[in-house]
Please model this.
Amino acid sequence: MRALVYLGDRTVKQRETPEPVAADGEVAVQVLQAGICGTDLCVIRDERPKVVPPMTLGHEFVGCRRDTGERVIVNPILSCRRCRACREGRMHLCESRQVVGVHRPGAFAECVAVPADRVLPAGNATLEQAAMVDPIATALHAFRLAPPPEGPVAVLGAGAIGLSMLFVLRAAGVQDITVTDISQQRLDLAQAGGATRVGLVAEGVYDVVYDTAGTTVTRRDAVLRARPGGTAVLVGLHSADLLVPAGPIIGGERSIRGSFGYNDDEFREAARLADKLDTRWVHVISFDEAESVLSALVEGRADPSQVKIQMRLA
Model:
């Protein structure tokens, strides 16, 4: 079958690979559409997470079960169910966590084998919406890490997670939402998605600031723009460093929360929300285009209006 395989040395190539064989407790899923995530780009750039090549990437996807033909979404986070984090219901923090497309072959291929208990019905969601469940769940988890806001909130970054964050906030009834980005095209998309105000930087103070960009500058701004007693939720992973003055954290009793992934309940809720997502900022390409598009993304040559790129395999 055809697959996009990470070969190391910042290289991804289309290759013919063997069809997966579903083990006991697994199902084979024919991939219909898969999204390119920032995690995939970090792997290709040899940043974090570290992946042993050759590896078929891809963890945001929708497909059809080969045994039943049902259209399904797959939760890509696999956990042991035995460690302390799993027993506490935080399977995404499992001590032996694995992720489809990182630790085992992923969805940038015509077919992938996954544990049967990771599969959910896709319902009425379109292919674009169904392949966005992972980013929606990531945003939903970030939202739940902070106290429910009573005042304004800010989202720093209008990429796929930032716009998913806006979607989750709106679905939760949050009324006053500022979204920032350096791209006017993305700010226009945030405005169309219901942001109260948009701009290059956030001004004022907020109950909660969600940093989805993950640069040293946006992380610092997230903390300093949180009101005294407020919360900065750090989601983006672009930079390795956090550079924030201690005085405002201590003197203002501001909280900093790291946010990673989502738990099983949040993934299920995201799947229920997905058919309400406006996907005008999702750009669909053919599988044959994906190799060159990935190279362009890794090299920073992407069109900013194409916030999320998904490849269609069927």
